[in-house]
Amino acid sequence: MENEKKCVNGVVIKEKTFDNGGTQLKMSVKVEDFIAELKAVEDKGWANLIISKRKEASDTGVTHYVKVDTWKPDPNKSSAKPQMVTADSKSDDLPF
Predict the structure, then answer these.
(1) Which secondary structure element, helix H or strand E, spans residue 38, and what is its range?
(2) What is d(CA 47, CA 37) in angstroms, rounded to the nearest whole number?
């Protein structure tokens, strides 16, 4: 996995906390910039993004940021699905 963090421009996310403890995220998108960013990182029609919370809100109240998820599966590892293993109820090799 790459350690380089590529932030996505054209997105502003602010979190609002209500008196009852609930929260909501308000996201403002500059459409042209955001579309250009998505097209730059898309792979087979998909763009994988991660929304992360900032350690501290910015001076303008921005609480979250968007970065590109650069993780790719290792092509050398098998992509076979794990098989279900059933336990034999008469087995005596249990540790308890």
Answers:
(1) helix 31-41
(2) 9
Torsion of Cα atoms, 66 then 25 then 56 then 39, to 10° = 10
DSSP 83: P
Structure tokens belonging to residue 8: 């996505």
Domain range annotation of the chain: 11-68
- Whole-structure pTM value: 0.68
Q: What is the DSSP letter of 21?
A: S
Q: Residue 12's Cα: distance from chain center in Å? A: 16
Q: Indicate the DSSP class of residue 89.
A: T
Query: 47-76, pLDDT tens digit by residue?
Result: 999 999 999 999 999 999 999 998 888 888
For 24, other C-beta atoms within 10 Å of its C-beta total 9
| CA 39 to each of CA 47, 71, 84, 87: distance values in angstroms, whole numbers, following the listed order | 8, 17, 40, 49
Closest CA to 38 of 50, 53, 48: 48
